[in-house]
Amino acid sequence: MSSDEKVFDFPKAEITSEEKVRRAMAEAKRLASLAPGEWRLWIDRAAERLGVPRATLEGLISAIIKDSERKAREDKAEARRQEERVRREQRERKREQQGIDKKAERKSKEKQKAFERLISLPNEQHETRLAELAKRFDEDVAVIRDDFTVFVGMESRAASTDPWNAGPIRSRLVCSFRRSALRLASTS
């Protein structure tokens, strides 16, 4: 380089008031996003660098913090409302399912009672009564007939597999026999 050459400084750009406000807002958002209370450590330096009064920057930061806290409360409240809505829907579905289950159980008991009455009738009347039951329960006759067949099978198995419990009767008979034998022995 020769001594003839001059070095010029880059001209400082004029910062418009809009740019100043934008920079102050960006810095206020940055400081507000720091850990609680940490912004107080950095506010003086930031205000000086931006050429903004400390009170103005502090007001911006406080407003941003309050706004973010308000939004957090609203989000939390909305989440609570959503959870409550889900719980309410679950309770409603459970209640509906219980109603359906009770209705099915009641229908099953009614069928069983009707089948018990039907067993005692002659076989010739079974088909007509099964058709009536199908109409009453709003089901197909074939389904009712199958249910009745299963029911009759269960009844016959229960009757055939129920062992006669002779234990208590046998022990009474043995005791009675012994007493009688002792009476006979003592009288002779």
Description of the structure:
This protein is mostly helical and 188 residues long. 79% of the residues lie in helices and 0% in strands. The protein contains six helices and no strands. The chain has helices at residues 17-32, 39-50, 54-119, 126-137, 141-161, 167-187. The longest helix is centred in the middle third of the chain and has 66 residues, at 54-119. The protein is elongated, with a radius of gyration of 47 Å. The model is unreliable at 158-162 (pLDDT under 50).
How would the blueprint of this fold be written?
Layout (H helix, E strand, L loop, with lengths): L16 H16 L6 H12 L3 H66 L6 H12 L3 H21 L5 H21 L1
Helix pairs in contact: 1-2, 1-3, 2-3, 3-4, 4-5
**Helicity level:** over 70%
Q: How many beta-strand elements?
A: 0
**Class by alpha and beta content:** mainly alpha
Overall geometry comes to elongated
* Largest pleated sheet: none
How do the helices and strands follow one another from N- to C-terminus? HHHHHH
Q: First CA to last CA: what distance? A: 156 Å
Overall mean confidence score, pLDDT: 83
Radius of gyration: 47 Å
Given as residue ranges, the uncertain stretches (5+ residues, pLDDT < 50) are 158-162
Quick recap:
With 188 residues, the protein is mostly helical.
Identify the notable features of this structure and list them briefly.
single chain; 188 residues; mainly alpha; 6 helices; 79% helix
